[in-house]
Amino acid sequence: MFGAGLSSVPALAQDVLIRHATVHTAGAQGTLQNADVLVQGGLIRAVGSNLQAPASISVVEAEGRPLTPAFFGGITEIGIEEVSGESETVDSAVTLADGQPMRPEFDVTLAYNPESVLVPVARVEGIGFTLLGAGTGGSFIAGQGGVLRLDGGADPIGPRVLFVKLGSDVLGKSGSSRAAQWMLLDQMVGEARGRIAADSPHALLTPTGRAVLARYLAGNGRIVVTVNRAADIRQLLRWAQRERVNIAIASGVEAWKLAAEIARARVPVFVDALADLPGDFDQIGATLENAARLHAAGVEVSFAQFGDASHNARKIRQYAGNAVANGLPWEAGLEGLTRVPAQVLGVGERLGTIAPGKLADLVLWTGDPLDVAHVATQLWLGGKPIPMRSRQTELRDRYLPAAGPLPRAYAP
């Protein structure tokens, strides 16, 4: 098959010294000019100036170009969705027979395919990890996902994440009322905490589902809630405080209205930074300044797309750049693609910043990585140089006519 094997990577990490780069660490060291990064055994061993390369090590001359941590691709279905219009290639949501209880135990990472053609498509854009998200099928409790590094490995890293969706988009899954969403959620919490008998004829959860939900209620894992309306976000903050659970907000179009409350609750937000118009009645307060206002209040801000995010993961840095253009500090935009999602999702000890001991997941750029006029020239994952090609680039190279004496528009 054309393009087969594009998701494979070299078997062994490459020891490399990247020299004379503008190193955006996304961490405590900030940005280092004319700095070097030494990679050995798949890990960053040293960051500084005038580092000496051990004998026979490969040296990459950055010539002042930006070097960043590998980027977060957002909340996607990369590897669990191939062709969105072909149901047999989509594994992101569960819809069981009528009368089946809600299934928080559903885990989309079990269907992840590391050989998906979408993996190299994302990698050539400097994306090194993504959060696989569960979609709403038969319930507004979507199920679980997790962080996948796009290094060819088949298994997620870090803790699982539980996905919940609230608001008008899931009214049909909650008795046609958003008030019923809280009623049903409170019943599930009661079952998981043992306040409602497991053998109740109206039980919503299976025994496994109760155990899974109980784990999140005990603080072992984060619940990511897709929600937009400020009134719903307020109820979510109250619920999270009452139940003492770790949550994050996804989309959060009207989150800026409650920025101070969100900051006090230490709830991070995965912002839809291109939401500037009220797409529905939950988004009346849409503004391109959402990320900037949240950050100014002290909220940790990352980014996510909503709508075909898997096939358009490359746009995530456009989201960050757009937020920067509308008031978010540049450094916060970069951290929203690196440090913030890694820490929020429980993988910050390994990913998200350039520092000794971290995985050598790095990207060298032609220029400002938040400016779509620039591109990634090389991605390393665990020190492995990733081939900067995908099915699209190979199709381009195969069928694009060679340059001739006339512009391509006039080629036969």
TrEMBL record:
Short name of one Pfam family: Amidohydro_1
InterPro entries: Amidohydro-rel (IPR006680), Metal-dep_hydrolase_composite (IPR011059), Metallo-dep_Hydrolase (IPR051781)
SUPFAM superfamilies, alphabetized: Composite domain of metallo-dependent hydrolases
Superkingdom of origin: Bacteria
Stretches assigned to the Amidohydrolase-related domain: 276-369
Alphabetical list of PANTHER family matching this protein: ALPHA-D-RIBOSE 1-METHYLPHOSPHONATE 5-TRIPHOSPHATE DIPHOSPHATASE (PTHR43135)
Protein name according to UniProt: Amidohydrolase
Organism: Pseudoxanthomonas gei
Lineage: Bacteria, Pseudomonadati, Pseudomonadota, Gammaproteobacteria, Lysobacterales
